[in-house]
Amino acid sequence: MELNLDQILQSERAWEYVLLDIVRSENLDPWDIDISRLTEKYTERINEMKEFDLKVPARLLLAAAILLRMKSDRLVDAEEREAYEELLSGDEDFLFGDEEEESGPSEEVPLLTLITKRKHLRKVTLEDLIGKLEVSMRPKEKKVKIEPFVLVFDEIDITEQIEALYKKIMESEGGKIHFDELLPSKNREDMINTLMPLLHLANESRIKLSQENLFEDLYVLSEKN
Hints:
This protein is mainly alpha-helical. The protein has eight helices and three strands, in the order H-H-H-H-H-H-H-E-H-E-E. The two termini are 20 Å apart.
């Protein structure tokens, strides 16, 4: 996959290329993205670009800001969950503090019944994350009243894509295939729709992805190698 860094930075989807490359290079699970780690690596990439005096597109910076907000929100959720679990465990120090620091006569504390909804941190897939970023970066437009209509989209089965791509890789001679050979076309959508299943396969150790340097040719190796 021969990609020029300047061309990537000029693309409106530069942030997506950077995200996908981090997921690949850091071996992140595309089914359960570690938002904290991804955000850390993403901001590192931004800083590296600045050190090399590269002009960082506004959308790359906007994506970084959104990721930092998502990371912050999830950390708050995690802290709230930890506090809730301490509350249920009956930790008196957590509930009432140190008795020696109490002022005034001690009183018997009535037993309380807590009714609350536990917050669970939902797993975030790579597809979910890209979708959320796309929506967040979409320009806000004034609502225009239009006539309702039905638009039907073809459903994309990621599992079916993964297996079809895996079969094609296993049938290739030599067990090594260039990324471009797996592409239906060179447009951005086909590149993304091909790379995402490859990341899933690599995460499951069914294939290996080989790339000597960032944005250079990408090769896919079957499990036989």
